[in-house]
């Protein structure tokens, strides 16, 4: 099957072995992230996604915060593996923090009470679409990335360190950088398990 967008999605892979030498400028990375999120869909065009991009020392600070938060809860005997994993994130060039604006969600719930239960779900879906858009966009520029979820463990410290509004709820952390080792093979389950087509 030949389709440019499908090929872009296929090219987007989780890259764990990242370096800090980006193939494009930090300014271009930030601009691409902005555009990808701006044009990602959201229910009622609510535009609930909020983004913080960390480069260099700020990026490393995030993962030092995460490491210390994990040190407090991971048994000492098992911490070496955890530390190694966090250090692999520190080796990257930057991190995208994905937030959702809770005030927008609450406002929509009040404005459209019939759909109130759905707005938090739609907010999560909007965040997922923004994450895919950013990830796919970066992969097109040969920037590797992996998606992490250390929220809510680090939420309070992130909010304090970067003066994040209280209504911005952290949803994911995407580490990015140079691709030091490509992704391995990926297995797929049989199509007939996942897909049904009726005519």
UniProtKB/TrEMBL annotation:
This is Nitroreductase domain-containing protein. Residues 9-177 form the Nitroreductase domain. The lineage of its organism: Bacteria, Pseudomonadati, Pseudomonadota, Gammaproteobacteria, Enterobacterales. SUPFAM superfamilies: FMN-dependent nitroreductase-like. It comes from the Bacteria. Gene3D superfamilies: NADH Oxidase. InterPro entries: Frm2/Hbn1, Nitroreductase, Nitroreductase-like. Keywords: Cytoplasm, Oxidoreductase. It is found in: Cytoplasm. One of its GO terms (molecular function) is oxidoreductase activity.
